[in-house]
From TrEMBL:
GO terms for biological process: methylation. This is O-methyltransferase C-terminal domain-containing protein. The keyword Transferase applies. Keywords: Methyltransferase, S-adenosyl-L-methionine, Transferase. It comes from the Eukaryota. Residues 270-382 form the O-methyltransferase C-terminal domain.
């Protein structure tokens, strides 16, 4: 009995000390913690998050969830967990009906009857959907039946990349998730690409990428925007800014470095090929931050067409200087441009099962020169149970009594893992899985660079110096 009382106190104390730290960071930013009713952006929303602030946020998330689960009756917690898909369902309704857009010009709120007329939804049903979301602080009910945008819902505007990400997750991915049980229990590898996505979308012509190209280019365009939103969620700033970290590892060969990848200190003329780079928002950020680099963006032809418009509008100077090349590729069938100094793949390998990943990585390996490096920018999945010994030294273990991987504090990575399972028959991987994948393709791990929530995993050709 004593033990669990102590655990509860430890969780409260972890929350308290982490919140103190978070308050100090907000004070240092010169602005207060925003009210949940606010629709204004706070500097800490977009600026790079220090590794220490990230750790404090993970602790507060993880400890709060663990604490409420400890003290609430399990049947209540489990039922709420089982209901959770209705948040996705409600978000899908408000995204599709563009509710946030309709509220844009009414900061003081709009009565649901007027909102219903604008969205062509039933007022009573819409009010209930908005109330459901408002208990999670997405939208606010200002006075009874009068709703307004707030800190979360403002990101659901239809021109917001994070809104596009929400659209993707609550639409295509939601349908894929609903078909996961059938797909796992009664697999049919001959329908589509055998994924829950093919089954959920009733698409027999392949997987996600074929669906966007053959059936629904509009959703494909939203996917490209959603990837920009994903960059905002994981703050891809961390890829180039370099975050300070308290992490320290004594592992001899596989060293963790203490900063983001050092793109800034690469020599003049260094070439970076962003393979499967989408419209190129990450490589554009790298190119803007590091004027000495030359960027080659490669993706499917239809995506490269989008990329041309994006770069022309957002980075005309880099286009005019000829510092970027936008080239189509099918990385399952061909190698990227040969002899680049770096091949950079963010959130690409997680879309593919091991068999296809090996085809992609081998195609890249065949393009590499002896001094080339491959950077896989991905999440690294950790076991929930503490990992002892050598392998365990790669990860920061959360303070007890938290789950060793921070539990809910790192939920995004585990959502993403199941999302990859459902939508692409694929997965987020552990470091060991990446090492084996690389080894099978003639690639050798050099280092793992910690870059906020994600990691840059650096490989070289096996045996190269
Ligand atoms: C998850 S997105 C990642 C995009 C970008 N790297 C990012 O992190 O924002 C995967 C990318 O792989 C591209 N892709 C999928 N299949 C491809 C193929 N066969 N050849 C080239 N690119 C492909 C998609 O078009 C998409 O842009």
């Amino acid at each position: 009995m004593e033990d669990t009382f102590t655990q509860l106190d430890q969780l409260v104390s972890l929350i308290s000390s982490s919140v103190d730290y978070i308050k100090r960071e907000f004070r240092a930013s010169g602005q207060a913690i925003p009210s949940l009713k606010s629709i204004d952006e706070h500097p800490l929303d977009t600026g790079a998050t220090s590794q220490k602030l990230l750790e404090a946020l993970r602790i507060v998330h993880g400890a709060s969830a663990q604490l409420t689960t400890m003290i609430a009756p399990p049947q209540y917690t489990l039922s709420n967990l089982s209901f959770a898909h209705y948040y996705s369902a409600c978000l899908n309704v408000v995204n599709t009906a563009k509710v946030a857009d309709h509220l844009r010009d009414y900061p003081e709120g709009l009565h649901v009857s007027r909102l219903a007329a604008l969205t062509k939804l039933d007022g009573n049903q819409l009010a209930r959907i908005l109330r459901m979301l408002a208990i999670k602080h997405c939208f606010t009910e200002v006075t009874p039946d009068v709703f307004a945008n707030n800190r979360l819902s403002i990101h659901l505007l239809s021109d917001s990349p994070v809104g596009a990400l929400s659209g993707l997750l609550t639409d295509e991915n939601y349908h894929a998730g609903a078909s996961l049980t059938d797909t796992l229990l009664h697999p049919d590898p001959n329908f589509g690409n055998g994924s829950a996505f093919s089954r959920g979308l009733n698409f027999d012509g392949g997987g996600l990428w074929e669906f966007y190209q053959q059936v629904d280019p509009a959703r494909g365009k939203r996917f490209d925007q959603a990837m920009v939103g994903h960059g905002a969620v994981i703050k891809f700033d961390a890829i180039v800014t370099g975050l300070s970290s308290k992490r320290c590892s004594s592992v001899p060969v596989l060293m963790f470095n203490l900063a983001g990848f050092p793109w800034r200190s690469q020599p003049d003329g260094t070439t970076v090929c962003d393979v499967g780079g989408g419209v190129g928002h990450v490589s554009m950020h790298i190119a803007k931050s590091c004027p000495q680099l030359r960027v080659i963006l490669q993706d499917l032809p239809s995506v490269i067409e989008q990329a041309k418009l994006f770069w022309k509008e957002a980075a005309p100077k880099i286009m005019n200087e000829g510092r970027v090349q936008l080239l189509p590729i099918n990385f399952l069938k061909e190698s990227p441009i040969t002899g680049c100094d770096y091949y950079f793949l963010k959130s690409v390998i997680h879309d593919w099962a091991d068999k296809d990943s090996k085809v992609i990585l081998t195609n890249i390996k065949n393009a590499m020169k002896p001094t080339s490096r491959l950077i896989l920018h991905e999440f690294l999945i950790q076991h929930i149970a503490p990992v002892e010994g050598e392998a365990g030294r790669f990860f920061t273990r959360a303070p007890e009594p938290l789950l060793a991987n921070y539990g809910d504090g790192r939920a995004f990575e585990y959502y993403s893992d199941i999302c990859m399972m459902a939508s692409c028959n694929a997965k987020e991987r552990t470091l060991e899985e990446f090492v084996v994948l690389g080894r099978d393709c003639g690639l050798e791990l050099v280092k793992v660079w910690e870059c906020g929530q994600m990691n840059s995993i650096e490989f070289k050709l096996a045996g190269a110096s």
